[in-house]
Amino acid sequence: MSAAAGVRGGHLLAADVGGTKTAIALAAAGAPPRILAQEIFPSQRYRRLEDIIAEFLAGAKATVPGLSVGGACFAVAGPVAGNAATLTNLGWQVESEAVASEFGLEHVRFINDFAAAGRGIEHLSTADIETLQSGRPRARGVRLIIGAGTGLGTGLITWQESGYAVHPSEAGHADFAPVDETQDRLLDHLRRAFGRVSYERVVSGPGLMRIFSFLQETGAGEPSKQFLDASQTQADTASLIAEFAAARLDPLAVRALDIFVTAYGAYAGNMALTSLAYGGVFLAGGIAPKILPKLKEGGFMRAFADKGRFSGLLAEIPVHVIMNPLLGLYGALLEANHLRGQTR
What is the value of pTM for the model shown? Predict the structure, then answer.
């Protein structure tokens, strides 16, 4: 495709590529972009991102007449450098020129998934947000987006002259800091498996499973028969633990989720203190919406604010849960729209 053809393309292609699932969409360019086709793929069933793109576009071409992509943006779970990335929890290596060449796209950009999510925040409606702490928000204050899912993503959002700018981060891989004796023992347990232990080893879907296993292996209890029976047919063990904990059907699951929520809250408080996020802390990712009742019980916010002399400062910072699971996809679409505008 020539450069001119790429610029004239009226469609946007975007995806939010995570370790568990990839949400991908085709949209008409505009303010805001209008989604024409959208699909979710299980990431781990595919060998590479290009296979997902090919399958999606094959279906989209049948329903979108005159398909011509003028900008493409892919939000990926991992650090991006030189418009290329290696996805942390998939091992895929992606590079803009390779994707552009394979699909005849003139303009392709890769961005960090939480950079995309951060960009999407300003376009959320009130129905997309649940508030854990109202705080005292400051106009143009720093915002922080954090999300536990397959991994633990974090992004910083700061006000510039004309609006908010998003800064990706890999803070989820910072050293895990226990806050009580149980977490001390958990850290020792995980060190034997991993050596160095990051927050992501604890505050993530796999992390919740590790906490559950730690409790079982250290004699804290055994899973109920009902849990064991359910685990034979449900592959997502982290979701099963959260489900049984929420319904109080398994004491070990309840305790595991308590530890998880405390660690999550402590991490969010650390990041809020680091950034002075008076514009708000936004919890995204796949886990927070699923455990919202647990987050509202108070353990998360107690751990968030338990910072000694600075607990009063943290009481002023708003904390919200983002309920819209497609936040990162919308952010990637906005970036694709911006990219197309730059090249016209």
Answer: 0.86
